[in-house]
Design brief:
With 297 residues, the chain is an alpha/beta fold. Helix content is 39%, strand content 16%.
Amino acid sequence: MLNLEAEILRVRPLPEASKDEWVHSLIQVINDLILESGEGFRLLGIGIAVPGIISLDKGEVITATNFNINHLSLKEELQKHFHVPILLENDANAAAYGEFLYGCGQQVSNFVYLHVGKAVGAGLFLSGSLFTGGAGGAGEFGHITMDEDGPLCRCGNKGCLEKLISEASLVEKWRQWAPGEAVNPSLVELVELSNRGDERAERLMAYAGSLLGRGLVTLIHLINPSFILLGGELALNNTRLLQEIKDYVGTHCMPMFSKHVEIKEGLTRLNAGIIGAGSLALHYFFEHLHMENYTES
């Protein structure tokens, strides 16, 4: 929950739920936040960042593979319960918007926000505007094919970047390199191990960083961004991964491109998507400032 200055007041996790219960859980979390805010609180809008492909015009989640959701009219479902504007956006796009307003993207016309966590996606800010593509699906960086004979991804393709560096895939490699290892570390734990000098974890981060760097070289050559801002559980505070990405880009990019782009962590860090989604709702409210049209939910 954000105030009018886009400062985060409250955060509540969305409980794990089945496909059929997902919308109900989301509605319950929003209602809980409203109740906790007490008297005098007025809900002005709702911004939702979803890890998937969004139809902005229809307010529909076309596909969100992590939630096993396809063609969900999320805006319509939420509008039944909340009588305020509801804005949907892809999570990486929302994070890019948050960086543009409050992070490293301020006053920057061309940059990429790259989310690297349990999912991989990119938000593209081009010529001072968020670029979403013809069908709203621009930035599906995680579904670049890295290995045509690789493992099957949830999108139906094989060898996608997201599949190769997913938490499950990295843990599987970790175990292959250490037969008999009983521990299954999380992404954050793998990053911590790497930063402490664990040889296997460092090797794992070098592997993931080289794959990310390979994808970024193509992206840099295509759009020539000034910044690539990293976020997500795998990318943040990850010294080895960041260095591997920079090394790969420096080696494989044309010098005129590699010298122009700066690769670093985003300023809003794990809060980028929250700030971006909330800011979309705030922006809509201030653009349509007719308070008589707004009622308390």
